[in-house]
Design goal:
InterPro entries: aBig_2 (IPR046780), ConA-like_dom_sf (IPR013320). The structure is a single chain. The protein has one helix at 242-248, and strands at 17-27, 30-40, 47-52, 69-71, 83-87, 90-96, 100-103, 112-121, 131-136, 139-144, 156-159, 164-167, 178-185, 188-193, 196-201, 214-217, 227-237. The protein has 252 residues and is mostly beta strands. It has a single domain (47-248), classed as Sandwich (Jelly Rolls). Strand 14 (188-193) and strand 15 form a beta hairpin. The longest helix has 7 residues, at 242-248. The protein is elongated.
Length: 252
């Protein structure tokens, strides 16, 4: 830890580090000190965190207990419904435009991560999210098939913290499969459409500073729900390579 309080976690596989923080409290000529002992946990190893194949269920193939939950037209609403239909992937999950999927909390808990998914929207509506993750209602990211008018309604990754637009410069098309992926590595975001890099930028906000972030597919707290198909959602800890994303975009 630096003298300004910036903490660097030990590398994955290393032991935790114990630090003692000393606070000095003063008023006028009177002062006192209090000490706090904290433990800095090592970083978690990079690799796949979750893989949802949607073969007739909402189970994560890497950990069966991390199952998604059907929601209504908002992340926290109940009463929704989804279907599974036969597609090029075997089976895919179909969203009806009034429902979504709440994923387990805490899937991303660092400033380096990757998300990849196949989408086939029936329609495109402004602000509608495909993949949504949030620390709270003021700190969030959203993979948006159709962005706002300020980016010509292009497909983008949008962040509510500092209003960051990672604009791909293009729009995916209704009734056509598209593979979307993005990686974040300590403030650098790279976005891919069908395996091709379409955006790279710095200063992307660090949203996931806790271990209980909220994650969902097709819905958030505000906007029109997604209508169409999704398949093969993969979430990674760490930034995967461009070559890995090219291979993922070939799996259809």
């Amino acid at each position: 830890m630096t003298d300004k309080g910036v903490i660097t976690r030990p590398e994955a596989g290393k032991d935790p580090v114990t630090l003692t923080l000393t606070a000095t409290i003063a008023k006028g000529d009177v002062s006192t000190q209090k000490q706090f002992t904290i433990t800095i946990l090592p970083q978690k190893p990079n690799g796949i965190v979750a893989h949802y194949k949607f073969e007739g269920n909402l189970s994560d193939s890497t950990q069966k207990d991390k199952e998604g939950i059907i929601t209504g037209d908002r992340v926290d609403n109940s009463g929704g419904s989804i279907d599974y239909i036969e597609t090029e992937f075997g089976r895919s999950v179909k969203f009806n435009g009034q429902s979504g999927i709440r994923l387990p909390d805490g899937l991303i808990d660092s400033d380096s991560y990757s998300v990849a998914i196949w989408l086939k929207p029936d329609t495109l509506t402004e602000y509608t999210t495909a993949f949504f993750g949030a620390r709270d209602s003021n700190h969030w990211i959203s993979l948006v098939p159709k962005g706002h008018s300020g980016v010509s309604h292009h497909t983008m990754v949008w962040a509510g913290t500092n209003w960051y637009d990672a604009n791909t410069g293009q729009s995916i098309q209704p009734n056509k499969w598209a593979h979307l992926a993005f990686t974040v590595k300590q403030g650098t975001i790279t976005v891919y459409v069908n395996g091709k890099e379409t955006f790279k930028g710095t200063d992307f906000p660090h949203v996931f500073t806790t271990t209980n972030g909220v994650f969902s597919l097709g819905v958030n707290w505000w906007d029109t729900p997604y209508k169409g198909l999704m398949d093969e959602l993969r979430i990674y800890r760490g930034s995967i390579s461009a070559d890995e994303i090219v291979e993922l975009a070939k799996t259809k």
